[in-house]
């Protein structure tokens, strides 16, 4: 798998999914460490922000999470930094190299999450809530997410379904080494909920296929969403959005470019599978509605 594919897949892999829980004992965790953005967002969405004492390098939402002590990246959490925070629950990604064994040797309770689909986000919310001793909070959070997603799905079903291409990987500043969104992926589900048709949702296609510009030209989607090189802050995203959009100006034969439906993403909710899936789906749906409403 090429560097661009690894980078794109790993960024999405920091999301929540089915969870394997190590023995936690009877005590309700009061000091929790998160090692990925979607885990952090889930903890805060469950009303557990006051228990979070450490987060990963890339945890920036909600804003208060950005001020917490950092414990490394989701791929390489720092066991010593984690232990120094004296947690009684750590939530780690299963791609994190050897951290589960290190935490077990230190007798620090942990929860291991795997990358997954939209459906597994709900499973993760329930199991994280249970591990934190607040299982009932998962019900209201999931009910709210499902209610809003269903409203977005109904609105999308009642309108035409534009053909959509999502780009989640490329060389920064260039339209090379493109990685798209295929079937079975989290973002494919978002496209469908929003009322679009994923041009790469082809049987046998990998979840995140490498594609060429020749393929993009051949598929000629109605809408293109480029999620790459957004920036780390809201200000950076606003600054980079027009720069990223201009990369596509040389391909005026593309329907999406000709009709003004090439969108450089401005929300990191798209690449953090977690409770903000609602905001991500609503953002995509808003793009699809723009041309319908004109």
Mean pLDDT: 86
Rg on CA atoms, Å: 19 Å
Could you tell me the number of beta strands?
11
Helix content: 40-55%
Structural class: alpha/beta
| Main sheet properties | 6 strands, mixed
Give the topology string: H per helix, E per strand.
HEEHEHEHEHHEEHEEHEHHEH
The CATH homology group name of the largest domain: Nitrogenase molybdenum iron protein domain
Inertia-based shape? globular
Which consecutive residue ranges, at least 5 long each, have pLDDT under 50?
A: 13-24
How large a portion of the residues is in β-strands, by DSSP E?
5-15%
Distance from N terminus to C terminus (CA atoms, Å) equals: 42 Å
The number of helical elements comes to: 11
CATH architecture assignment name of the largest domain = 3-Layer(aba) Sandwich
What's the domain count? Answer: 2
CATH hierarchy class name of the largest domain:
Alpha Beta
CATH topology of the largest domain: Rossmann fold
Write up this protein.
Helices cover 40% and strands 13% of the residues. It has 294 residues and is of the alpha/beta class. The longest helix has 23 residues, at 135-157. It folds into 2 domains: 3-151, 3-Layer(aba) Sandwich (Rossmann fold); 159-292, Rossmann fold. It has 11 helices and 11 strands. 44% of the residues are buried. The radius of gyration is 19 Å and the shape is globular. Helix 7 (186-194) crosses helix 11 (277-292).
């Amino acid at each position: 798998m090429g560097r661009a594919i690894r980078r794109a897949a790993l960024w999405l892999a920091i999301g929540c999914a089915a969870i394997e829980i190590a023995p936690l004992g009877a005590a309700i965790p009061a000091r929790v460490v998160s090692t990925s953005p979607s885990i952090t967002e889930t903890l805060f969405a469950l009303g557990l922000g006051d228990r979070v004492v450490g987060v990963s390098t890339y945890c920036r939402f909600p804003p208060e999470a950005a001020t917490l002590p950092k414990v490394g990246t989701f791929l390489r959490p720092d066991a010593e930094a984690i232990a120094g925070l004296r947690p009684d629950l750590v939530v780690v990604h299963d791609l994190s190299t050897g951290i589960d064994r290190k935490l077990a040797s230190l007798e620090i309770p942990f929860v291991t999450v795997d990358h997954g689909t939209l459906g597994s986000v709900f499973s993760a919310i329930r199991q994280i809530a249970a591990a934190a001793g607040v299982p009932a909070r998962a019900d209201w959070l999931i009910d709210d997410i499902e209610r809003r997603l269903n409203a977005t799905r109904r609105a999308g079903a009642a309108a035409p379904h534009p053909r959509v291409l999502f780009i989640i990987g490329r060389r920064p500043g260039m339209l090379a080494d493109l990685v798209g969104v295929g079937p079975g992926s989290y973002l494919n589900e978002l496209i469908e909920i929003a009322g679009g048709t994923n041009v790469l949702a082809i049987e046998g296609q990998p979840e995140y296929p490498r594609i060429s510009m020749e393929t993009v030209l051949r598929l000629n989607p109605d809408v293109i969403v480029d999620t790459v090189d957004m920036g780390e802050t809201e200000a950076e995203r606003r600054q980079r959005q027009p720069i990223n959009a201009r990369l596509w100006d040389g391909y005026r034969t593309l329907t999406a470019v000709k009709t003004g439906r090439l969108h450089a993403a401005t929300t990191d909710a798209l690449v953090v599978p977690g409770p903000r899936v609602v905001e991500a789906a609503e953002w995509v749906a808003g793009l699809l509605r723009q041309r319908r409403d004109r």
